[in-house]
Structure formats: structure tokens, C-alpha cells
Write a structure and sequence with these properties.
33% of the residues lie in helices and 23% in strands. By secondary structure, the chain is α/β, with parallel strands linked by helices. The protein has twelve helices and 17 strands. The longest helix has 24 residues. Helix 3 crosses helix 4 and helix 4 packs across helix 10. It has one domain: 3-Layer(bba) Sandwich (FAD/NAD(P)-binding domain). Strand 1, helix 2 and strand 2 form a beta-alpha-beta unit. The site of flavin-adenine dinucleotide (FAD) has 41 residues, from helix 2, strand 14 and helix 10.
């Protein structure tokens, strides 16, 4: 069993990224007394900060107040892997199966636009978030993953998406050397960044434009009639309109409970690799890497050459729990994944590990919407895997919805879409965990049939 160091006890440092983004960070005050606003935004992750920022850009005279339970970027926005990749849901294939080819194409275009828009904002607003343009490789390691990759490529071609290309085993291993790689899908227009820094830099520009943010100020109760009113521990906000940007934390609001459930996921981070260790991997071009498992692993190098690996598993905790989850087994499995993927790093020390929650709708696609008929209360749920850039553009869509502006963003099919309702507890827990167990068993079976060259021999 591997020793796991560095469980984060302090909210400021719930991930390597948050820890790095803490030095020099100016925490906002908690709300004291009653604040009157035109629009209240609940949640200071990427979705919430982006909504507030775009509202202020569109209507500078509006008073916009953001409430955050903990600190800006405390949720998935400050803990994820930091890939900027053009996906709305886990794969094109899943999107096409659920919504049809036309909408899968539309989703891809939206995600491409989201990435380009975020990168353009980073440059124009000089956001200090360690952004680097990098290729994105989705590697196949088993016959099942190979089949999935080929199907994804064929679908991309049918949808007219030309910028995904196939690398065979030799070509991918020239780029990053793992004996498990059988081939990879490569995309050129991707990037890496520090997600906590990005969120806090966006907060900086939002505040500079006049948005008011209160941290350590959870909305304890929320009423929508006759005006929006959020009660916090030492104050309250009254507003005409409201955006719920609480993603995986949304089950606390009864109106959003059936639309999504929180899933816990995990990350481990090694000590910085030595030049010899790094050299043994190739990986000169520092690509963003995922595999084609159902519970995908996402991995990358950090600026100081640590290996960060996330995903590999997801758990639902009964009653929609969102508190930090210290599932030792899930972290150990990530360490084993490192050993399998890069034998030259076998046994490498895990310096830090952390978990976080993401929001899953029943069909794993995001949903932006309006509660009731009038656009007084809008929400964003279902930000799952590759949704950093997406959350940023979604914030602009939420701002358009609140301001009753009909734009190309509010026309996208996952805005105001009907979600498939998830049952309440006690049925929710066995249902969600049952599905997760089946998917886990599928990944395990695929891997038992062999990884890498041994898989080819057995297939
Ligand atoms: C394995 C894995 C890897 C990922 N890696 C990537 C990646 O590389 N690239 C990518 O694009 N995406 C990635 N993601 C997804 C991405 O992190 C999320 O989709 C995105 O950060 C969601 O942002 P958000 O603002 O919607 O939610 P959050 O960041 O969770 O923000 C919600 C905020 O609401 C606050 N809140 C909750 N309740 C209240 C309340 N009552 N009052 C006030 N505030 C409240 C929370 O504290 C939190 O700060 C990954 C996901 C997984 C599973």
C-alpha cells in the first residue's frame, strides 16, 4: 500500500492549485447586514464569477452581489486538472447517442467557441493563470478503448470535425512513452492552466468592474417570492433576480434536486520528477493526456514537473453529500495507475491528494435553465468533466438569460432543456451507485483482458 501524504485540512489549500493561488490572494469579507442588489449570484466558481462578470459588462449600472460559502474556487473550479479542451460531455459519441448528430455537432462548436473565448479573455485581461497551449491526446490502452477511439474518430469525421487525428502506437509512444499505449486521438487546439488561479483572476477583474463578492457567506436559506432573499450567517441579500451557480452543491435547493447529483472524484500529485525520470517518459511537448476508459484518467505535468493524475473513479454518497471524501482506495488506485502507465516511475511518492465534487445530470450533459416561467431565477448544473472553458461561456449565457436577451448562446439546445429527473432518496442512492458499479465493472473487465501490448496479443 502506498503512503499518501498531504491530505488538505484547511479550506485555503484543498488542492495543489488552491495552495498555489493562496499567496497574495485577497480574501473578500463575509457579508454583514442586509445588502440590496439587482442580481444575486450564488456560488463563486467559474460559472458564478463568469455570470457576475458578464452581467456587469452588459449592464454596468446593475448592482451584482455574489455569495460564496467558502472561498472563490473552493469547488471543482479550484481543484480540477486544468485542461482546456473542446468537449461538452465526456465524448462526441455519448452526445450523439443522447441528442442526435446535429446537436453533437452544435455542442462541439459551442465547446470550441468556449475554449477560444476563454483563451482570448486570458490574453486580453492578462489573467495570470499559467496558461500554455498544448496538444490533447486521448490514448487507447485496451482493445475496448481502441474500439471506442476508432468509433469516436469515425463519428467526428461524419460530423465534419476534421481536427481530430489518429496516431498509431508507434507515433503516440514517440510523443509520450508508455507500454500501455496502443494509439491515440490527437487534437491541436487545447491548453493547460492553473484552474484556481484562473478563477481568482476572473474574480479580480469582476471585482474591478464593480461586482461585490462575499466569501465565507453561504446562502443558508433562499426564497424567491416576493423578492429573491438569501439569508447568510450574519446578513441577507435581497435582489430582483438570481443565478444559482452551485453545480454539484445544487441538491440543497429543492427546485434543483431532481436535475443532478453530486459525484466525488479524486486526484493525486507526485513530487517533482527528476530530469532522468522526465526523460524516461519522452513527453517533451507536455501534452494534456486522457485515456478512453469510462472512468477516464486525466493527467498532465505541472509547471514544476510533478505528475498530476485525476479521475479513474467516481462515487455518489447517500443523501447528496458534498463534504470532502477521503476514499483511500480511490487514491491508491491512482497511484497504481501511475505505476502501470509509467513503469520507470514505479513506487514514486505521492506528495498530495485531494477530492472534489462534480455535478452529473442523468445524461451527463450540462443544463442551463430558468426556474418557473419568468427569467428571475436561472441555474447551471451538470458541469462534469471538461467544463472549465464551458463554465466561462455558460456564465455569459446565464447573463443573457437574466437580462432577457435572446442571443445565439441562449439558443443552444442545452439551455432551457428538459432534464431526465433523478429520483429522490432513498431510491437515488441504489440507482446511482448501481449504475456506477456496472460502469466500474466494465472498465475492470476491459483491463483484465489486457493492457498495452499484452492486449494486442490477447485480442
Ligand atoms: C476528473 C475530473 C477532472 C476535471 N478536469 C477538468 C479539466 O481539466 N478541465 C475542465 O474543463 N474541467 C474539468 N473538470 C470539470 C470542472 O472542474 C467543472 O466542470 C467546473 O469547475 C464547474 O464549475 P462551477 O463553477 O459550475 O462549479 P464549482 O466550481 O463547484 O462552484 C460552485 C461554488 O458554489 C459554492 N456554493 C455551494 N453552495 C453554496 C451556497 N449555499 N451559498 C454560496 N455558495 C455556495 C461552492 O462553495 C463552490 O465554490 C474536471 C472534472 C473531473 C471529474
Amino acid at each position: 500500500m502506498r503512503t499518501l501524504a498531504g491530505a488538505f485540512a484547511d479550506y485555503r489549500a484543498r488542492s495543489f492549485w488552491l495552495e498555489q493561488a493562496t499567496a497574495g490572494y485577497l480574501q473578500s469579507p463575509a457579508l454583514e447586514g442586509v445588502a440590496r442588489a439587482d442580481i444575486l449570484v450564488v456560488g463563486a466558481g467559474l460559472s458564478g464569477i463568469s455570470t457576475a462578470y458578464h452581467l456587469k459588462l452588459a449592464e454596468p449600472s446593475l448592482r451584482i452581489v455574489v455569495l460564496e460559502s467558502e472561498v472563490t474556487g473552493y469547488g471543482a473550479s479550484g481543484r480540477n486538472v486544468g485542461f482546456i479542451v473542446p468537449y461538452v460531455s465526456p465524448s462526441l459519441r455519448l452526445m450523439a447517442m443522447r441528442f442526435g448528430a446535429q446537436r453533437a455537432r452544435e455542442a462541439r462548436r459551442y465547446a470550441e467557441r468556449a475554449c477560444a473565448y476563454l483563451v482570448e479573455t486570458i490574453a486580453r485581461r492578462r489573467l495570470d493563470c499559467d496558461y500554455e497551449a498544448r496538444d490533447y491526446l486521448r490514448v487507447a490502452r485496451t482493445p475496448a478503448e481502441l474500439r471506442r477511439a476508432q468509433e469516436e474518430l469515425a463519428l467526428a469525421r461524419r460530423l465534419g470535425i476534421e481536427d481530430i487525428e489518429w496516431l498509431d502506437a508507434g507515433a503516440v509512444r514517440e510523443q509520450v512513452d508508455s507500454p500501455t499505449y496502443l494509439g491515440a486521438l490527437r487534437e491541436r487546439r487545447a491548453g493547460l492552466l492553473n484552474p484556481a488561479r484562473l478563477t481568482r483572476e476572473l474574480k479580480r477583474v469582476a471585482v474591478a468592474s464593480g461586482v461585490e463578492i462575499y466569501e465565507r457567506s453561504p446562502a443558508l436559506t433562499l426564497q424567491f417570492e416576493p423578492v429573491v432573499r438569501a439569508q447568510t450567517p450574519r446578513g441577507a441579500v435581497e435582489a430582483d433576480r438570481c443565478a444559482l451557480a452551485t453545480n454539484a452543491y445544487s441538491a440543497q435547493f429543492p427546485a434543483l434536486r431532481a436535475r443532478q447529483c453530486p459525484l466525488h472524484t479524486y486526484a493525486v500529485l507526485t513530487e517533482p520528477l527528476t530530469p532522468a525520470q522526465l526523460g524516461s517518459l519522452g513527453w517533451q511537448a507536455r501534452q494534456a493526456l486522457s485515456n478512453m476508459r469510462i472512468f477516464r484518467h486525466d493527467y498532465r505535468l505541472t509547471g514544476d514537473n510533478r505528475l498530476l493524475v485525476a479521475g479513474g473513479n467516481a462515487h455518489y454518497l447517500a443523501g447528496n453529500q458534498t463534504a470532502v471524501n477521503h476514499d483511500t482506495r480511490a487514491f491508491e488506485d491512482l497511484a497504481i495507475f501511475i505505476d502501470q502507465t509509467f513503469p520507470s516511475l514505479r513506487g514514486i511518492a505521492i506528495a498530495q491528494h485531494w477530492s472534489w465534487v462534480v455535478s452529473a445530470t442523468a445524461d451527463l450533459a450540462p443544463a442551463l435553465g430558468v426556474l418557473g416561467n419568468a427569467p428571475r431565477v436561472v441555474y447551471s448544473v451538470g458541469n462534469l468533466e471538461h467544463n472549465v472553458a464551458l463554465s466561462y461561456l455558460n456564465g455569459r449565457a446565464l447573463s443573457d438569460l437574466l437580462l432577457e436577451r435572446k442571443t445565439d448562446l441562449t439558443d443552444v439546445f442545452f439551455v432551457k432543456r428538459a432534464t431526465i429527473p433523478l429520483p429522490p432518496e432513498p431510491a437515488r442512492s441504489p440507482l446511482v451507485n448501481g449504475v456506477l458499479s456496472l460502469l466500474r465493472a466494465r472498465d475492470a473487465l476491459d483491463e483484465r483482458r489486457g493492457l498495452g501490448n499484452s492486449a494486442i496479443r490477447r485480442a
